[in-house]
Inverse folding.
């Protein structure tokens, strides 16, 4: 298992229609390292954003098989975290519109 610091744990925030809908409920989506636990995610988010985390739900995604001509490959497995922050606290991202 690789040694993870707070900047390797969070891969990137996820901006989709669903994530913008969940933002109204103080929930944010992140792609996280696939070996990270819920408690580690909660600790890292509390350190980086200085906001109180209520809960963390995670979903593991298996990479899809892809073909290009006669060559086959597989996309990487990844993990998504749905993080609920305490009411009244928010985090700021630079969003492209």
């Amino acid at each position: 298992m690789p040694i993870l610091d707070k900047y390797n744990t969070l891969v990137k925030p996820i901006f989709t229609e669903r994530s913008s809908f969940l933002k109204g409920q103080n929930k944010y989506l992140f792609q996280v390292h696939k070996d990270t636990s819920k408690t580690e995610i909660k600790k890292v988010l509390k350190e980086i954003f200085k906001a109180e985390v209520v809960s963390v739900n995670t979903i593991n995604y298996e990479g899809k098989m892809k073909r290009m001509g006669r060559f086959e490959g597989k996309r990487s497995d990844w993990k998504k975290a749905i993080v609920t922050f305490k009411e009244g606290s928010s985090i700021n991202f630079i969003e492209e519109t």
